[in-house]
Amino acid sequence: MLTIGELAAYAGVTVRAVRHYHAKGLLPEPERDRSGYRAYDAGAVVELIRIKTLAQAGVPLARVRELLRAGPDEFAAAIAEIDERLRAEIRERRRHRERIARLAAGDSLALPPEIVEFLDRLRELGVDERIVEVERDGWIPLAAHAPDLVPALIARKRAQLAEPQLLDFYLTLGSVLDRNAEGPELVRLADTMAAYLTRLAEEQGADYVGGGIESALVELLDTLVFDTWPAARRLLELLRDRGWTGWTRLERTP
User: Fold this and answer.
1) What are the CA-CA distances from residue 163 to residues 36, 170, 181, 197, 215 (Å)?
2) How many CB atoms are located within 10 Å of the residue 204 CB?
3) Low-confidence ranges of the chain (pLDDT < 70)
4) What is the helix (H) or strand (E) element at residue 204, kind and residue range?
5) Owning domain of residue 218
6) Among 45, 75, 103, residue at a domain's last position
7) What is the pLDDT of residue 106?
8) Helix axes 150-160, 129-145, angle to 10 degrees
9) Where is the domain boundary, 70, 86, 103?
């Protein structure tokens, strides 16, 4: 006869595991002898090894008892079912790994390739990384909420980068991020942007630039910019004085 420690050693488990299997009703708990100890026989070793093997194979403890009592056909069917569940879990874990890999990839986490290429282009042109990050964070909710707008918007953005005035705006914006919101650089930014918008609106024959985005999303994107860079509010005031209002969706003032 074996003590609980010897039983655990023969089966390759811990005493705590044996007690856990007792509590779950998987392994019968023998009566205590006259000395107050529980004595286990060889059959308990065999049963414990079977329990351990099923548990290590991924069988939930709630089903171990069922399988221990099952006939050959029932056992085979249950194992096939458990195997399919494990395969599904493996597929899900692979998807999790893909998401983690995308997280490590930075911009590509939540953005389509064309936006990632645009952000990379901004970096190539020397745009301050903080401006690139604001652009990226603005594209994320837009791409998630209105993906059908992305192709046209990103094409417009790429074309605008070829405009010297807009590129100058991007480059100057990065240089004044840490400066006084009342400084002359911000005024020059407003002059540059207002002149560009006026020319663009005349070419398009419209009183707005960047339309097509619903108002609630425009408000969200504007708030994101203002919270990230408070001086943007001052720049917006300067633009309003020059006949334009808005940030994500720019419109002529009445």
Assistant:
1) 90, 11, 25, 11, 27
2) 11
3) 97-109, 177-183, 204-211
4) helix 184-204
5) 106-252
6) 103
7) 63
8) 160
9) 103
Quick one: 69 and 85 in the same domain?
A: yes
Token pair for residue 175?
A: 């240089």
- CATH number for the domain spanning 96: value is 1.10.1660.10
Q: What pLDDT, on a 0 to 100 scale, did the predictor assign at position 211?
A: 59
Residues 163 and 245 in one domain: yes
Cβ 82 vs Cβ 59: under 8 Å: yes
Distance CA 243, CA 254 (A): 8
Count of domains observed in the chain: 2
In the block, tokens 């049963």 appear at: 47
| Amino acid 14: pLDDT | 92
191-225 residue pLDDT tens? 888 888 888 777 766 555 555 788 888 888 888 88
C-alpha span between 113 and 143 (Å, rounded)? 11
**Where does residue 226 rank: exposed (0-12), middle (13-18), buried (19+ CB within 10 A)?**
middle
Which structure tokens are listed for 204? 């398009």
Contact (CB, 8 A) for 186 and 231? yes
Give the burial string for 162-182 (b: 16+ CB within 10 Å, else e): eeeebbebbebbbebeeeebe
Note whether 94 and 13 are same-domain residues.
Answer: yes
Burial 49-62 (b: 16+ CB within 10 A, else e): ebbbebbeeebeee
Helix (H) or strand (E) holding 24: none
Strand residue runs (E) in the chain: 208-209, 244-245, 250-252
Residue 19: what residue type? R
Residue 234 sits in the same domain as residue 126? yes
Residues 46 and 143 in one domain: no
Q: 183 and 165: one domain?
A: yes
Same domain? 239 vs 121: yes
